[in-house]
Each structure stands twice: as C-alpha cells, then as structure tokens.
Design a protein that fits this description.
Blueprint lengths: L2 H14 L2 H21 L35
Length: 74
C-alpha cells in the first residue's frame, strides 16, 4: 500500500468513528508523538566495567566434556 493510499484509508476510517473512539485515536497518536521525542535523546557514555578478570578465570565455569560427538568435528 502506498503512502497516499494509506492516508486515504485512515481518513475514511476516522470519518466513520464515533466521537468517543476518535478521542482514543487522538490520545494514541499523542502517545506515539511523545514516544518519538523521548527515544531520540542522546545516550549517556558509560565507562567500561573493569574487573581484572582474565580468560583463565572463566575456566572455573567450564564443564567437562561428555559424549562422543567431538569425533564428528574432527
């Protein structure tokens, strides 16, 4: 659907809505517009977390190999 077709469809749908539902649509559009402005805030630059860990420190989390499917990789 092209942009002009979409606009025309929305206009037709809005014209058929009762006032209470039209009010809901307006509130929804307001929330979308407010969302846009809050999402475009610049991100804060955070310093990296330095803990002094090395790759060897991660070995305590490694399990032992079980099974024989390692041979299929060789």
């Amino acid at each position: 659907m092209t942009y002009p077709e979409l606009l025309q469809k929305i206009e037709q749908q809005l014209a058929q809505l009762p006032p209470d539902q039209l009010s809901l649509v307006s509130e929804f559009l307001d929330s979308l517009q407010n969302q846009d402005t809050t999402e475009h805030r610049p991100l804060r630059q955070l310093a990296p977390i330095k803990r002094g860990s090395k790759a060897g420190d991660l070995l305590k989390f490694a399990g032992t190999w079980q099974g024989n499917d390692l041979e299929s990789w060789l």
